[in-house]
Amino acid sequence: MSETPGASYASAGVDIEAGDRAVELMKEWVKKTQRPEVAGLGGLGGFAGLFDASAFKRYERPLLASATDGVGTKVDIARRLGVYDTIGHDLVAMVMDDIVVCGAEPLFMTDYICVGKVHPERVAAIVKGIAEGCVLAGCSLVGGETAEHPGLLGPDDFDVAGAGTGVVEADRLLGPDRIRTGDAVIAMASSGLHSNGYSLVRHVLFDRANLKLDQHIEELGRTLGEELLEPTKIYSLDCLALTRTTDVHAYSHITGGGLAANLARVIPDGLHATVDRSTWAPGAIFDLVGKAGAVERLELEKTLNMGVGMMAIVPQDAVDSALATLADRGVDSWVAGEITERGEHATGAALTGDYSK
């Protein structure tokens, strides 16, 4: 009677050697993100990432800002296309553009990558995208975790999440307290769908319209897969540059929940933000989703960003300076609305008019 071989981590589906190989492949990309406060403090593979907090000595009262987020079901598009080096841009944008909303400078980030099976090159490609995103946001990638969950996830399934930290001087904290009647609302164009609403998008385009990722869509000017995998624009450094040159009162990152709901989060009691749809034309992808699923405009607007990824609220006399700064940085921006006194039936923010064609 033969003896049954003893169980091992490998027989349970976890490949430690593959994980080690992935770490080696990602090291060069992580190194490219190092800020001065991180350089020389340990390295990838330690139990904790390190950041030299003596940098805060130049602040009178430093406030740390933190955020955590994921990419949502957009990861399914990356998996189906076999393209893994852009999804990290989305992750950094979701985390660090939340942090910059209060005026904080992004400092460092950690990631969490969960996979059904470690494919070293695939994991390294995901981290490459995260590292490139960190460079665009001006922060360091100081560590992370790659977890292999066989049996829970399929061999090709994965998910990503991240957490970030930033810092802002207390008396430069942006937000509702600064907003005044008459302020202008400046919109900054999105690069597309960004990383929200993909459950609706996938349901409409794949389940209802039966479109294919490799299908060329004339109105998009490229394949559907290329459009859906377009990385989320990272506004962090643009917003920081704007706060240095302009009297910014607040920012709003337009993510899940849509434009009006996210803008309302920074509007104080007693005031109201009105955004005029006629000041811009949403990209073709928004029209495609709406028509393919017969999605009502209100449903689209509370799910998707409709072509606006970030909004800045500034005094009227700062509008020209703000638009010039953003234009110099290659950010498409425009005055989309204004702040008024809240009427009896008004909410925090609302959209009016019809989109331009």
UniProtKB/TrEMBL annotation:
GO molecular function, one term: phosphoribosylformylglycinamidine cyclo-ligase activity
Main location: cytoplasm
Protein name as catalogued: Phosphoribosylformylglycinamidine cyclo-ligase
Catalytic activity, as annotated: 2-formamido-N(1)-(5-O-phospho-beta-D-ribosyl)acetamidine + ATP = 5-amino-1-(5-phospho-beta-D-ribosyl)imidazole + ADP + phosphate + H(+)
Underlying gene: purM
Listed pathway(s): Purine metabolism; IMP biosynthesis via de novo pathway; 5-amino-1-(5-phospho-D-ribosyl)imidazole from N(2)-formyl-N(1)-(5-phospho-D-ribosyl)glycinamide: step 2/2
UniProt source species: Streptomyces aureus
Domain PurM-like C-terminal: 181-345
Top-level class of the enzyme under EC nomenclature: ligase
Sorted UniProt keywords: ATP-binding, Cytoplasm, Ligase, Nucleotide-binding, Purine biosynthesis
Subcellular location: Cytoplasm
Enzyme Commission identifier(s): 6.3.3.1
PANTHER family listed in its UniProt record: TRIFUNCTIONAL PURINE BIOSYNTHETIC PROTEIN ADENOSINE-3 (PTHR10520:SF12), TRIFUNCTIONAL PURINE BIOSYNTHETIC PROTEIN ADENOSINE-3-RELATED (PTHR10520)
Family: Belongs to the AIR synthase family.
Domain PurM-like N-terminal span(s) in chain numbering: 61-168
